[in-house]
Design a protein that fits this description.
The complex is a heterodimer of chains A (316) and B (239).
Chain A lengths: L2 E11 L1 H10 L8 E7 L6 E8 L5 H14 L9 E2 L7 E8 L4 H10 L3 E7 L2 E7 L2 H8 L6 E9 L14 E2 L7 E8 L2 H10 L9 H14 L4 H11 L2 E9 L2 E6 L8 E5 L2 E5 L2 H4 L10 E2 L5 E6 L11
Antiparallel strand pairs in A: 1-8, 1-14, 2-7, 2-8, 3-5, 3-6, 4-5, 9-10, 10-11, 11-12, 12-16, 13-14, 13-15
Helix pairs in contact in A: 5-6, 6-7
Chain B lengths: L1 H9 L1 E5 L5 H13 L3 E5 L16 E5 L11 E7 L13 E6 L15 E4 L15 E4 L15 E4 L15 E4 L10 E4 L3 H13 L10 E5 L11 H4 L3
Parallel strand pairs in B: 1-2, 2-3, 3-4, 4-5, 5-6, 6-7, 7-8, 8-9
Antiparallel strand pairs in B: 9-11, 10-11
The chains are: A alpha+beta (316), B alpha/beta (239).
């Protein structure tokens, strides 16, 4: 059992604080790890990168190795890297780099470094995930101060795979910039798809089926599907029970399988959209009595762009 | 008359839910019922497990929307929700009455054993799943797999069903006044006898719904799955 949430804002605002509150209200759905995919102001000619460095004792050495790999791909750090000062062994670092060429080869080269794993890269996307509940992760990484247009949240109760800072959601659709996923459910044809995608050259850093769904959709879109087409295709080609939220630089999207077991509810409000596993998560943002879209039924696909005006007459 | 009304107002206890610990809220509801007071719960904020296992004689109103399992394990209390409810409304209720002025989400009255649940709006999927007895009245539509695996009791749907109505019904009944959009495995439709229609009319009158001339159809078990036979394996393995 996991809890997921998504948020879009029509004007850039406190999307970090909103998601922290929404995930805190779903803490009971999982508290071993919490993560956020946050979309700030998009950079024009640089990528913002979040990287997990496994050992603080080698922090500077590993950052230097990342800089070397980046230079080898014709790019460089735009500003000095920053990182959390928690003192814990693992470090979540934030880099801003000019455009490496080719991008996917640079991603592979970074991941090939010892003790280094990229968590996200994009014009706007920053994935922050760690052990602990919403408030613990937010306090450690300053999530509540993050301003932006949209984002995703996830609380995790690991049922099969490892509990570690890299095993939680959201997952980045490596190596597609700005695509992230949070997911509640499980796939039963995971290995079939994983082997197919690996043969195409995609790399997976975990044994987690959610990571696959993000890459699967990105691959479909790279092959020419629209976001809507890809989400609809996933309802028949992915097998299992799943409700997932996929985020791109433009906004967030929802897909829910034909068995309709994993709940999801949404509020479309004048200031933006909030979507979550549980309604009480939405009510942390909207305490007045509001109209909630309850997507209890099967085969649901929705797309909510961020930072776009809401049509008049939408439910409040 | 005026004096009586004043007395009713005086015995109402207002309890705020908000972000308070649920156990505290539920303990206060229970204490107020034991003190003979009517209870109004404000700011329920779609929170879960509100008003579970309430005793007979309790009268509780939730002013707004509630989350999962509201009124679960009810033992005879009268519960009203003025807006919508989440999953598992009145789950495993033994007796009492739950009225929802808005819509109810998935699994209304799951494992219901007795009492009445009355939803004025629509109900979500699996309404009456595995119910053993009691009555569920839905004035609007019901979601897919209404009455899934029901063992007993009645669902009265004044609107339409979605797909797979009565899927794997064991021995309950689903009465539908509107359109049946699809039947589940091992379910069949029959015309109910006039005397039973009259009984249903009385049940509806009991929750304040008039019923004259509705074109009732009744979904019951076709009983093919009561005993396993290898020739039916395809039905058992329908997924």
């Amino acid at each position: 059992m996991c809890g997921i949430a998504g948020r879009t804002l029509n004007e850039p605002g406190a999307v970090g604080a909103d998601l922290v509150a929404m995930m805190a209200a779903q803490r009971h759905r999982g508290w071993d790890s919490t993560g956020f995919a946050l979309y700030g102001e998009a950079l024009e000619d640089a990528y913002v990168v979040r990287a997990l460095l496994a050992d603080r004792a080698h922090l500077h050495e590993d950052l230097e190795a990342l800089r070397t790999v980046t230079r080898e791909h014709g790019a460089d750090f735009v500003e000095d890297p920053t990182w959390d000062d928690s003192g814990q062994t693992h470090v979540l670092a934030r880099l801003v780099v000019t455009d490496p060429e080719p991008f996917s080869a640079w991603v592979d080269a970074c991941d090939d470094l010892d003790r280094v794993e990229l968590q996200s890269a994009g014009r706007a996307l920053e994935i922050v995930k760690d052990l602990g509940d919403s408030h613990q992760v937010a306090a450690k990484h300053g999530v509540e101060h993050f301003t932006g247009t949209h984002g995703l949240g996830h609380v995790r109760l690991a049922t099969e795979s490892n509990v570690s800072p890299v095993a939680g959601h959201p997952f980045w659709a490596r190596p597609f910039p700005d695509v992230a996923i949070v997911h509640n459910g499980q796939l039963t044809n995971y290995y079939t798809w994983r082997r197919r995608l690996q043969r195409q050259g995609y790399r997976f850093t975990t044994e987690n089926d959610s990571e696959l769904i993000a890459v699967w959709n990105s691959d479909r879109m790279a092959a020419g599907d629209s976001l809507q087409q890809s989400l609809e295709r996933s309802l028949t080609e992915l097998d299992g029970v799943f409700t997932y939220l996929l985020a791109t630089g433009d906004g967030i999207a929802l897909a829910k399988d034909r068995w309709a077991i994993k709940p999801v509810v949404a509020v479309v409000a004048p200031d933006g959209v909030a979507v979550a596993t549980e309604e009480q998560s939405l009510r942390t943002l909207y305490q007045e009595e509001i109209d909630v879209e309850v997507h209890d039924g099967p085969n649901v696909v929705r797309i909510w762009p961020a930072a776009a005006p809401v049509a008049a007459g939408m439910a409040v | 008359m005026a004096a009586e009304e004043a007395e009713v107002v005086a015995t109402e206890r207002v309890i705020r839910a908000g972000d308070r610990p649920l156990r505290e809220v539920n303990a206060e509801i229970r204490a107020a019922i034991e003190a003979g007071e009517h209870v109004r719960v404000t700011e329920p904020l779609s929170r879960h497990n509100l008003g579970v296992a309430l005793p007979a004689g309790g009268e509780v109103t939730f002013d707004g929307s509630v989350g999962y399992y509201c009124g679960g394990l009810n033992n005879g209390a009268t519960i009203t929700v003025t807006r919508n409810t989440g999953w598992g409304l009145g789950e495993a209720m033994a007796s009492g009455l739950i009225t929802v002025d808005g819509n109810a989400a998935m699994s209304v009255g799951a494992s219901l054993r007795g009492g009445t649940i009355h939803v004025r709006g629509d109900a979500g999927p699996r309404c009456g799943v595995a119910m053993k007895g009691g009555l569920i009245v839905v004035e609007g539509n019901v979601g897919h797999a209404c009455g899934f695996m029901a063992h007993g009791g009645k669902v009265l749907c004044l609107g339409d069903t979605a797909d797979a109505a009565g899927d794997s019904l064991w021995n309950g009944e689903i009465w539908v006044a509107g359109t049946i959009r699809g039947l589940g495995v091992d379910a069949r439709i029959e015309e109910p006898p006039a005397e039973e229609v009259a009984q249903v009319r009385e049940l509806l009158t009991g929750v304040g719904v008039s019923d004259e001339g509705r074109p009732w159809k009744r979904i019951v078990s076709a009983q093919a799955l009561w005993h396993f036979e290898s020739r039916d394996a395809q039905q058992w393995l329908m997924i």
